[in-house]
Amino acid sequence: MDIHGKTRSKTWTQLAQTSDVGATNVVTKEAVDWKAGEKIIITVHNFDHRMSEERTITSVATANGKTTLNFAEPLLNKHIAKDIQISGQWTQHIAVEVGLLTRNVKIQGAADSEAFEYGCHVMMHSPGDDSTVARIAYAEFYRCGQAAKMGRYPIHFHMIGRVTKSYVKGNAIHHSYNRAITMHGIHYLRVIENVAYHIAGHTYFMEDGIETKN
Questions:
Q1: Please, what's the b/e burial string for 9-25 (b: 16 or more CB within 10 A of its CB; e: otherwise)?
Q2: CB 185 within 8 A of CB 210
Q3: Helix, strand, coil share (%) of the chain residues, nearest 5
Q4: Calpha distance 170→5 (Å, rounded)
Q5: Where are the domains of the chain?
Q6: What is the CA radius of gyration of the chain?
Q7: Phi-psi domain of 154 (left: phi exceeds 0; alpha: psi -120 through 50; beta: other)
Q8: Is 1 in contact with 60 (CB distance < 8 Å)?
């Protein structure tokens, strides 16, 4: 199975500077190829995930290796990028992440799936090393997974053994009702540069604990 969206230069990065409450833009520490009309998630520097904020980009400006992402709705929370002093002994740099949620290939649950927490799922299963090959890159998985249903996850590799020919790269998995990427009884899977946000349960899940070299 091959699912390939448009390759993106960066799927996530960090803020270059703090964005205060009321700001209508963020500046990324690296240049990105994100476009107006695409959605982003700005994370938090504390443990309250509810302070993360989704925004739709209205315009973009790149200069000096950084990108300014503008949006219409002001930020409700402060998102930090700065050096802090810890116990007066050492300095730690803290910068929250900003991730791209939009992809040009989109796999999604039905419009009413949220009411039942019952979305779509993609499952790879065929016992025997490399007997199933799945290359999934730069796609968006939205309203996927099924709450309290075992084995029903947005992206699920199940009891194949070695999967050296497969990869899950650069995808966005968000608003999932049951995990994001599940690795069950598999080895050598490459899971790279994905963005997972608003996930119920374990986000990256190695199910039996015997999975190696992933």
A1: ebbbbebbebbeeeeeb
A2: yes
A3: 5, 45, 50
A4: 9
A5: 2-100, 106-206
A6: 18
A7: alpha
A8: no
- Give the count of beta carbons closer than 10 Å to the beta carbon of residue 202: 14
DSSP state of 116: H
Give which of 201, 191, 10 is closest to 99, Cα–Cα.
10
First vs last Cα of the chain: how many Å apart?
Answer: 19
Convert 29-55 to b/e letters by CB count within 10 Å (16 or more is b).
beebebeeebbbbbbbbeeeeebbbeb
Domain 2-100 part of CATH 2.40.30: yes
How does pLDDT run along the chain (214 residues), one tens digit per residue? 999 999 999 999 999 999 999 999 999 999 999 999 999 999 998 889 899 999 999 999 999 999 999 999 999 999 999 998 888 899 988 999 999 999 999 999 999 999 999 999 999 999 999 999 999 999 999 999 999 999 999 999 999 999 999 999 999 999 999 999 999 999 999 999 999 999 999 999 999 999 999 9
Residue that the structure tokens 């959605």 belong to = 39
* Two tokens, residue 98: 């900003």
- Outline where DSSP puts E strands in 106-171: 106-108, 122-125, 135-137, 140-142, 155-162, 167-169
pTM for the complete prediction?
0.94
C-alpha 13/C-alpha 11 separation (Å) is 7
